Amino acid sequence: MTRYPHELSGGLAQRVLLASVLATEPDVLVADEPTSALDVTTQAKVMRLFRRIIEEQGLTLVLITHDLVAATLLADRVAVILDGAIVEESETATIIQSPTHTYTRALVAAATSTEILTLGDGTHEPS
Fold first, then answer.
1. Please, what is the angle between helix 10-22 and helix 40-57, to 10°?
2. Bridge partners (DSSP) listed for residue 85
3. What is the dihedral of CA 27, 6, 42, 72, to 10 degrees?
4. Separation of alpha carbons 104 and 106, rounded Å
5. What does the pLDDT average to over 29-44?
6. Which of 5, 13, 90, 113 is placed for a possible disulfide with 94 were both Cys, Cβ 3.0 to 4.6 Å?
7. Confidence (pLDDT) at 88
8. Max Cα separation, the chain?
9. Is residue 17's pLDDT more than 90?
10. What is the pLDDT of residues 50-62, one digit of tens each?
11. Helix boundaries (H) for the chain
12. Using only C-alpha atoms, what is the Rg of the chain?
């Protein structure tokens, strides 16, 4: 590589960082908003990469995100946090299909992507 880190695009810098972390073969990866600064195409690539690594290497991913669609595509379980406290925690499909807390219901209702409708079956791939 002949470029300095500050010369990389946001998406490329994100992928370089992810590759360097994954090269250490961690058992657990904490990812705080890993796709928030990326364009939609790069977000999908990163989510596919996470899904592949989770399945192939048994990586445990702790995903911290405001993106409900990303969370549902990658997570087996979801915890909804409001004002620093967990207000609801369950399997992903349960959270999406039968949210019990008012805030969780509002989050699910606000999700505009049709992708969220296919959650919980374990077969959906991000496009």
1. 10
2. 82
3. 40
4. 5
5. 84
6. 90
7. 96
8. 52
9. no
10. 888 888 888 899 9
11. 10-22, 40-57, 68-74, 92-97, 102-110
12. 16
Distance between CA atoms of residues 68 and 12, nearest Å: 24
Residue with tokens 């406290």: 85
Rounded mean pLDDT, 104-115: 76
**3-state class (DSSP) for residue 64:** strand
d(CA 42, CA 34): 11
Mean pLDDT, the chain, as a whole number?
Answer: 82
What six digits make up the tokens of 7? 């010369």
Whether 69 contacts 86, CB under 8 Å: no
Phi and psi of 29, rounded to 5°? Answer: -125, 125
pLDDT at 108: 87
* Amino acid 115: pLDDT: 54
HEC string of 71-84 equals HHHHCCEEEEEECC
